[in-house]
Each structure stands twice: as structure tokens, then as C-alpha cells.
Amino acid sequence: RGHVYRSILEAIALTMKFHVDAMSAELGVALTEIVVSGGGANSPLFMSIFADVFGIRASRSIDGGGAAMGAAMCAAVATGVHPDFATAAAAMSKPRESFEPNAANEHVYRQMADTVYHDIRNHTDALFERAYPIFHGPEKDTDPWPSPTTPSSPTCSSSVSSERALTFAVASSA
User: Model pTM?
Assistant: First the structure.
């Protein structure tokens, strides 16, 4: 079971890396750090995998309240408690815990991404197209497994700050 769990974490990190690389190239930026928040950030293994896959420092908030703290900083700036975001961040945030990439692991993940992962869709899209009618029927609105009212799968979001750090929020209902 441990291998399955790790492969899921690696797939999340590789998928994020694939999209972040595209976004970074389009924006013309090079990241020096990623900041992971949410439930996934509580796992040292998850953080280490992100550092290894991205090949840069992966950090997480010590208090775990990344989204709430960001909202509080926005409110502090909007209400004039702090004159700008840099001042609010300096006054309100704590240092982050960081994970440095392991060069050997980074090399393996880079090989995996370059030789296999970037080519997966060329082999799976046709399978997904054939499977679609099985789960959705002839009508597009038919869904044999409607979404529950509460999320049951992880959701991810990301943003790039002016310090060239990428922030991920990984949430889970579990």
C-alpha cells in the first residue's frame, strides 16, 4: 500500500510541475521556492517529493493557516492596519519550515518527467475518449456518479508571488 500512496503523491507533484513549468515559461519567470499549504503540506513525505520533483526548496507554513493568514493580511491592508502587503506579511507571518531537494531523487524525477510523464497523454487520451460513454452515456448530462455536496477528492490551487515563490494549496476532505 505504501507504494500506491507514494505513487499518488508523485503523480500530484509531477502534474503540478508540468503545469507550473508551462505557466513559468509563459510568464518568463524562474521559481526559486514553492510554498505548499493545506492538508497535503502536513506530510513530510509529500513536502520532500515536491522539493525533489521541482528541484527547488519546498516550504510550508508552520502554523498551517496559509489561506486564512492570506485573507487576514488582505483585510489588514484594506483596512489600513498595515500600509502594504510586504509590511503585513512581515508583521503577521511566521518563518516557514523548508525541505531541500535531494539531488539523486531530483535526477530520477527529471528523467521520469522527460522520458515518460510528458508523453502519457499521447497514450491515454484515446483510452479516456473510449471510456467516456461508459460513464456518461450517450447524453453529456448523464453522470452515474454525481458529485457529492462536499468535496471527496483533493483540490489544488496555485499562485506566483513577486518573490518568485509558488504557493500551492492542497486541500482534502478526508
Answer: 0.67
CA-to-CA separations, 135 to 25, 96, 128, 142, 154, in angstroms, rounded:
36, 43, 10, 8, 21
pLDDT tens per residue across all 174 residues of the chain? 889 999 999 999 999 999 999 999 999 999 999 988 888 888 999 999 999 999 999 998 877 667 788 899 999 999 999 999 999 988 988 878 999 999 999 999 999 998 888 888 888 888 989 999 998 876 655 555 555 554 444 444 455 444 455 555 444 433
CB 59 within 8 A of CB 99: yes
For 143-161, give the secondary structure using H, E and C: CCCCCCCCCCCCEEEEEEC
H or E element, residue 77: helix 66-78
The H or E element containing residue 121 is helix 120-136
145: left (phi over 0), alpha (psi -120 to 50) or beta: beta
